[in-house]
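Hi everyone,

Forwarding the result from last night's run.
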Amino acid sequence: MIHNQIENLILPYQAILGKNYEPYKNHVHRIADLTLQLKHETNDDDEQKIAIAAVFHDIGIWTNSTFDYLEPSRAIANSYLEANNLDDWKTEIDLIIDMHHKRSVYLGPFYDSVEAFRKADLIDLSKGMKSFGIEKRYLTSLYKKYPMLGFRSIMGRNFFKNLFNNPMNPLPMFMK
């Protein structure tokens, strides 16, 4: 079910993402799966919340042509939630997106969702080198089902482009 939600949510961004559509979509699928694996508790709404957070967490890179993408990504997610009468989820999803690059453990409201998503993104960016207890066999099957397709290279190119344009702030998403 979560994967159908992801497909429906990300499809309107296909043209904006262009050649990065499949690599980003696969990243979204992987971190959604990993988040569900890492969460300690789940409820009926969690799959939809995770799908929304996953699709929108980095989308500002492409919609706003920026590597300082947390604020634009949060704004797009909030607009989606408002348009779909999901205002009650805004705080949780906003925190998931805002804290997904936090360098230390997140200990605030919605801890389980925010921390599971933060770890899932780090697992995926490190391609499992940092695994937080997720079995290598599971990661191998996840990367087979949703291959990287150069996603880390895409992020690396965005980093170097931003480093050239903003040498004093090459990783703005880590300024928290």
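The chain has ten helices and no strands.

Cheers,
N.
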